[in-house]
């Protein structure tokens, strides 16, 4: 179907011959987005192949949208959905990402990030509702090791600029298993957005709006915090990072979502941030070398630059960190 046919299914009886259709650049996803502009109106069309022939009542995006909206989390409104074409027509919340907002007006960085942490904690407070899939999935051993293995495959083994023997690969994987054991030994899991970074947060009418939430699952509260505060797309200065970590920790304590000391919160934050950054690197190399999407190459070095901080602070990361830095960093120089 062409775009106009999709729109006619979503807006039966409406004359859509004069609409202006503009493609919106997306992230590393198979979903496509288009801005649909009329004379006095603008909406966003999402074409999601995974929605075709799916049951809307159990489709993750729609389920999570309802959960978040019910918890007063700002998400784009949905005007229409059609599971035959796999299309959704949604509110247009503009192009201004958190990344753009803080670069244009650096003085807004701290207040905006405080607001975004407040929203993150609102999400983390949400309790299980029915049999929604987000509450049945978690960052368990299988998920974390899948992401670690994805990194090994695409950042190391399939990287023509890297030479890594089988012994070093096996040793690195054992270290990843040990780190995974540390992370999955923790209890007190909360709902996580799963990709809570500055490009999945729009600033619309001066307020944050959360997008790309369909893969939410249970995990440590530090997972989304690490995604936001150790973001591949925008680096925060150290003093602000520390204030925001403390703010998140205090917010968790106030809502009985955390019972550990601050030092333990920070240790788990670093371990989770290490895993999150490794996962991001796997995605960036995959997008560059397999998909042919070179837009992510620019974020590889900034993400690697985070790793020494974690490695130097925590003995449990030293061996894995040494292997990664000795193997991967020289290929980028």
Automatic annotation (TrEMBL):
InterPro entries: Aminoglycoside_PTrfase, Kinase-like_dom_sf. Pfam families: APH. Residues 21-247 form the Aminoglycoside phosphotransferase domain. One of its GO terms (molecular function) is transferase activity. This is Aminoglycoside phosphotransferase. It comes from Prosthecochloris aestuarii (strain DSM 271 / SK 413).
């Amino acid at each position: 179907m062409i775009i106009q046919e999709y729109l006619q299914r979503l807006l039966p009886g409406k004359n859509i011959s004069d609409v202006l259709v503009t493609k919106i650049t997306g992230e590393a996803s198979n979903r496509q987005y288009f801005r649909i502009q009329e004379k006095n109106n603008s909406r966003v069309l999402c074409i999601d192949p995974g929605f075709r022939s799916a049951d809307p009542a159990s489709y993750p995006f729609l389920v999570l949208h309802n959960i978040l909206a019910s918890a007063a989390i700002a998400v784009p409104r949905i005007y229409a959905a059609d599971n035959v074409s796999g299309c959704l027509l949604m509110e247009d919340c503009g192009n201004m990402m958190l990344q753009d907002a803080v670069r244009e007006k650096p003085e807004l960085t701290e207040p905006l990030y405080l607001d975004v942490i407040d929203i993150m904690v609102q999400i983390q407070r949400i309790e299980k509702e029915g049999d929604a899939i987000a509450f049945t999935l978690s960052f368990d051993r299988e998920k974390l090791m899948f992401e670690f293995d994805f990194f090994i495959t695409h950042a190391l083994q399939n990287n023509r600029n890297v030479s890594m023997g089988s012994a070093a690969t096996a040793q690195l994987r054992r270290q990843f298993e040990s780190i995974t054991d540390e992370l999955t030994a923790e209890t007190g899991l909360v709902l996580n957005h799963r990709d809570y970074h500055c490009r999945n947060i729009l600033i619309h009418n001066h307020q944050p709006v959360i997008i790309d939430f369909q893969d939410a699952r249970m995990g440590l509260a530090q997972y989304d915090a690490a995604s936001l505060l150790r973001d591949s797309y925008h680096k925060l200065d150290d003093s602000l990072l520390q204030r925001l970590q403390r703010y998140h920790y205090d917010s968790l304590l106030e809502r009985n979502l955390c019972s550990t000391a601050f030092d333990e919160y920070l240790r788990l934050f670093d371990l989770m941030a290490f895993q999150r950054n490794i996962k991001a690197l796997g995605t960036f190399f995959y997008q560059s070398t397999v998909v042919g999407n070179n837009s992510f190459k620019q974020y590889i070095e900034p993400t690697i630059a985070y790793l020494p901080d974690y490695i130097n602070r925590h003995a449990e990361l030293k061996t894995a960190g040494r292997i990664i830095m000795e193997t991967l960093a020289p290929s980028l120089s």
